[in-house]
């Protein structure tokens, strides 16, 4: 009973707003649909010790990480090659993600997210992040057009990729 009371006091005490958590894994998943089915390309980095700042007023408290595009895995070497070609991995070998202004909001979080991908800087203010049992997860829908990429077509146009790409970011702690 005392433990429950202490937890409630900590959660609802406005003086204990700022906190830090250690991110131990980052998982990025890019998924989409083609005319013959779906695809998933994943990037996972384990064993990290990055700090995620929650409810800080200091705008310099941000989490920045680089993602080597060659480290994405799509299931087989042909899909890996097509994914790398589509996102111009030779010209843009890394993507950069910046998480700032992470705020807790009664069961979910919001943050200002910046993504630098294929030479395009995209900003997502007040992106909603869901709390999971292992950390937080955010979802974005991007288009090839907003990334200034050409929608890939294979086998003379018989296999087409849909215009939307779904990007899921998981920060586990």
The strand line-up of the biggest sheet is 2-1-10-7-6-5-4-3
Overall helicity: 10-25%
Question: How would you name the oligomeric state of the polypeptide chains in this document?
Answer: single chain
- Distinct helical segment count: 2
C-alpha geometry: elongated
Overall pLDDT score:
82
Order of helices and strands: HEEEHEEEEEEE
Q: Uncertain runs with pLDDT below 50, 5 residues or more?
A: none
- Radius of gyration, in Å, reads 19 Å
- Judged by helices, strands and strand pairing, the structural class is mainly beta
What would you note in describing this structure?
This protein has helices at about 1-10, 75-85; strands at about 20-35, 35-55, 65-70, 95-105, 110-115, 120-130, 135-145, 155, 160, 165-170. The two termini are about 25 Å apart. An eight-stranded antiparallel sheet has the order 2-1-10-7-6-5-4-3, with no helix packed on it. Strands 8-9 form a two-stranded antiparallel ribbon. The radius of gyration is 19 Å and the shape is elongated. It contains two helices and ten strands. Strand 4 and strand 5 (about 110-115) form a beta hairpin. With about 170 residues, it is mostly beta strands.
Quick take:
This protein is mainly β.
Topology, please?
Elements: H1 2-12, E1 19-34, E2 37-54, E3 63-68, H2 77-86, E4 94-105, E5 108-117, E6 120-131, E7 135-143, E8 153-154, E9 159-160, E10 164-172
Antiparallel strand pairs: 1-2, 1-10, 3-4, 4-5, 5-6, 6-7, 7-10, 8-9
